[in-house]
Amino acid sequence: MMLGIQTRWISVLAAAAVALTSLPVQAAVSKRPNLPIVRDAEIEGLIADYTAPIFKAANLRRPAEIVLVNSPEYNAFVSGRRIFVNTGTIVGSEAPNELVGVLAHETGHLAGGHQERLREQIDRAQKVALVAGLLGMGIAAAGAAAGSGDIARAGTGIFAGGGTTAMRGIISYQRSEEVTADRSALVFLQKAGQSPKGLLTSFERLERNNILAGVQPSRYISSHPAPRDRIAFLDAAAHESPYFDKVDDPALQLRHDLARAKIIAYNDGAGAVQRVFRKDPRGLPAMYGDAISTHLNGSPALALEKIDALIAKAPKNPYFHEMRGEILMEAGRGKEAAEAFETAAKLDPKKSGLIEASIGQALVTGGDRSRMKEAVAQIRKGLESDPTNSNAYRFLAMAYGAMGDDAAAELATAEGYWHGGAIKDAKLFAARAQLKLKAGTPQWMQAQDILQAK
């Protein structure tokens, strides 16, 4: 996958989240200490529209944050107040309703407080395993002192069995919570006037691919077990919904396919885009994926030609203009890129901070020192609504550097590292910034906050 530093499709490292899996949680975390997080205004806006009615139906006191993980696996999981969604889940969902069903299921976990109770189960299981282990070691020690190999072997068996019993308890608990999340999802979907057919379709596809095709089991299957009786329940319950046959709005389907095309283009290239959208090779999704692939392959002139053809077909699509800005910025045409991003920002119904900040970022790449103050103001505007945009801080530091404000540049760099999860680097640049700042000023205190944070 090609990840340009200056593009809106960026990858940063985030702290590992505890997934609700049937694997030992500690093992799952240790095997995957970091997640490749994707930021993209178009996809984030789409998912926000999917989740809004579900969150409302679930009576969540505050909406959960949706985090996109760049992974081809069909999976989603809850951690804290966040729902993590793999990009592979978006690509693998042929219709919006399929993805909505998965999100409703994860919302069921969130609304039910399953993660908090899972932690309690893990804590209890650890205590059971510890007691069994101590008991086993005690018997083994007694056997060794008595010279009895049989007693020692019995102690070893208790030591091993205690951990197995504890893990069985966790797995059994998780499976019951999965069924509860299924039931909750059906309730949320009906309250939101959504069809449960997509949820059923997702699980049927997963089981079919896992059992009938003889392929490597999907991680979603292993973490969300879907035996035949579970699908049978979903099938019966889903057909009782008055919205079962409700079809996704064509405009929403188009947005969904455009998002899929973008993900496929960035991850797998033009060939994969053509294969997925072979039934409509001249449709907007296929053209979009092709334009992005051309851009990533380093052909800005041809990419501009292709994205302009898309804009001619859909002039009010903000993300076509955003992509035009990306192409121009990569080509070193910062002023024109800023204009394209401005158009995207005006058309964007979500008023994404990513797009707002990109206007200033384009001005920075343009190199016109007389516009650096404007660039700083624009990037700061984007950061007001999206303060975790670590990439924007990098450009903010560049703008301050061009203005000769080294202290502000150091502090912006520290902020960028902080939000990107590189805490040691953040503290290093915060210390450097403090040396250039007057003690007690807001900027000095901001650097101090980073230095004192644990």
TrEMBL record:
Q: Where is the Peptidase M48 domain?
A: 54-236
Listed Pfam families: Peptidase_M48 (PF01435), TPR_16 (PF13432)
Co-factor requirement = Zn(2+)
Repeat region (TPR), residues: 318-351
Gene3D superfamilies xref list: Metalloproteases ('zincins'), catalytic domain, Tetratricopeptide repeat domain
Query: What GO cellular component term, any one, is given?
Result: membrane
- SUPFAM superfamilies reported in the protein's UniProt record: TPR-like (SSF48452)
Q: Which PROSITE patterns match?
A: TPR
InterPro entries xrefs: Mito/Outer_Membr_Metalloprot, Peptidase_M48, TPR-like_helical_dom_sf, TPR_rpt
Q: Which UniProt keywords apply?
A: Hydrolase, Metal-binding, Metalloprotease, Protease, Signal, TPR repeat, Zinc
Native source organism of the sequence:
Plantimonas leprariae
Q: What is this protein called?
A: M48 family metallopeptidase
List, in alphabetical order, the Gene Ontology terms for molecular function in this entry: metal ion binding; metalloendopeptidase activity
Q: Which GO terms describe its biological process?
A: proteolysis involved in protein catabolic process
Keyword Cytoplasm tagged: no
- In the UniProt record, the signal sequence range is 1-27
